[in-house]
């Protein structure tokens, strides 16, 4: 549905912080399903952890926020520009259920619960295969840069 070239046009993130590789499904104003391929080449694996590489939980949440941002911009029918930024505003009911390791494919899912005055609330989860890795309610805000 959306390849890396389209994602790069929508998100300001770049290596090593771009955490969405492909959008698999996008239902305007409702939900998104995206993919993050997790490889041993990720720079965070060097220190997290050298004996047993595990993707940091905060980066799983960031990947979910990036997928949610793609859903937000699509719902607004807008593309971000140099005068707009998308911020984390809150995380609730965060639960980590399974470690994510090199070789895993992280399926990122977000459902838009509310959208008002540039504030977005999402129900999100990330899976490896059919196993739940993390779930959270995320609040994000689109703001003008002054």
What can you tell me about this protein's structure?
The chain has 146 residues and is an alpha+beta fold. The protein has one domain: Hotdog Thioesterase (Thiol Ester Dehydrase, Chain A). The chain is built from two helices and six strands, in the order H-E-E-H-E-E-E-E. It has helices at 4-10, 57-76, and strands at residues 22-27, 31-37, 84-96, 105-116, 119-128, 131-144. A six-stranded antiparallel β-sheet has the order 1-2-4-5-6-3, covered by helices on one side. Strand 4 and strand 5 (119-128) form a beta hairpin. The longest helix has 20 residues, at 57-76. It is globular, with a radius of gyration of 15 Å. The N and C termini lie far apart (33 Å).
How many beta-strand runs?
Answer: 6
- What is the CATH third-level topology name? Thiol Ester Dehydrase, Chain A
The overall pLDDT average reads 95
Radius of gyration: 15 Å
């Amino acid at each position: 549905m959306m390849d890396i070239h389209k994602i790069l046009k929508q998100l300001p993130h770049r290596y090593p912080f771009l955490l969405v590789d492909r959008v698999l499904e996008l239902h305007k104003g409702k939900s998104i399903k995206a993919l993050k391929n997790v490889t041993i080449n990720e720079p965070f694996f060097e220190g997290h952890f050298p004996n047993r590489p595990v993707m940091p939980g905060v980066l799983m949440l960031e990947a979910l926020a990036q997928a949610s941002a793609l859903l937000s911009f699509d719902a607004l029918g807008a593309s971000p520009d140099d005068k707009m930024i998308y911020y984390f505003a809150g995380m609730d009911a965060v639960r980590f259920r399974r470690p994510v390791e090199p070789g895993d494919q992280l399926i990122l899912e977000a459902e838009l619960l509310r959208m008002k005055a540039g504030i977005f609330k999402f129900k999100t989860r990330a899976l490896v295969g059919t196993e739940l890795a993390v779930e959270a309610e995320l609040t994000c805000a689109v703001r003008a840069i002054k």
